[in-house]
Design a protein that fits this description.
The chain is an alpha/beta fold and 217 residues long. It contains 7 helices and 7 strands; from the N terminus they run αααββαββαβααββ.
Length: 217
Amino acid sequence: MITAERYVEYEATERIRRIYDRGAWWYDIREWLPERLAFRCWRAEMWGLVPDGIVLEVGVGTGRNFPYYREGHQVTAIDFSPKMLRRAETLAQREELPVALRLMDAQALEFDDESFDSVVSTFVFCSAPDPVLGLQEVRRVLKLGGRAYLLEHALSEKRLLRWLMRRANGVFRAMNGANIDRDTVGNVERAGLRVVETRNLWSDIVKLIVAERADIT
């Protein structure tokens, strides 16, 4: 039986999925300038920290992280948008990239406990309707001592910027499904992961977060 709370979460997930499906065809065009100016540098910095091993990429989108996979990475990559995933599949085939792509929701990962050495995501948990649930799933599938590497938006601690982000959040969410008013580091901790490091990449509103599964309780 689906409870009222779970139904609301399902509806929210479907709404965001539709936003990404509608925008899949022009996503790479829309993101071209920010990718050139900053995102590609941030991606390279994050992936440079990911050790060799079995890696899960949550929210692969159109495959913007593909250039940063290394030979020592055995990657499974998921996305909940069929149309975004289709574009990633096309790119992976063209580049002959050995990545396993699967249609899946980050809030309900279809993997066994402790399946991955590392989990990586870029701007995913700003969009998930229940980010703590998604991060709990990340923790569950990480091996003990495994780490999550997250490139995420976060609500600023600066008073004026914080106020502006809260006022503008509804517009951002309606346009692209992303929230810019979340306590992302706090959500990581609430999910039971131990924050190892945070780096401010753009003021304090884009962060690189490294977190670890430190215990099995």
